[in-house]
Fold:
Amino acid sequence: MHRHPIPWAFVVKFLAVEILHIDEAIIVLNKPAGLPVLPEGWEEGAPYLVKMLEEQYAAPAGGPDRVIWTVHRLDKSTSGVMVFARTAEAHRNLSILFEHHEAEKTYHAVTVGLPPWDEKTARHPLRLDVGHKHRTAVDHRRGKPSETRFKVLQRFPAHALIEAQLRTGRTHQIRVHAYALGFPILGDELYGASRSELIERPALHAYSLTIANPQTGVRETFTAPYPDDFSRLLRQLSK
Structure:
């Protein structure tokens, strides 16, 4: 049966972006899973987060440019808190924070299997862009130093809700470190897990972000509520 392509305007309607905070310097939001931050592929008109923000939020000074600066990334399949800069100065300040690891990023995830530990720090060195799938891999000889601190928040019969705090910012770092410890993230087919009927993506959510607000200089923590699929997953596991 021939299927007509779904209009992207229809898709965007169901990828609502929750704004957690906005001022003249920054936008903090709760990114929905399934929406890329920047354009990918060659499909004309496909939605991506920066474009959506630029269409809605003009430069605060009322200038002609509608510009949003990207400071950090989340995978397309990952939901959760992100910050974007609205001015060049805010972009510089935030970039320095992230470069010096002064931005505190906390993620929540659901593992396959039950870790025997309550807390664990993974320090496997990671090498990016490995093989035709462009995976990140543990490489003790050529990998870059990487550190993720894990903590078990809740245990279920065959899974666990864990917290992960990044001390470095390598691509797919949490996913690879969880896999390297023997407890891949549920639904993460790229890194050791099977397809799951419980959730249609890797069960990973960027839960909170702590930064110094470029406008006020005050250090603030922004928290992103769980999306529906992640909340539903936890309810199912609790039964």
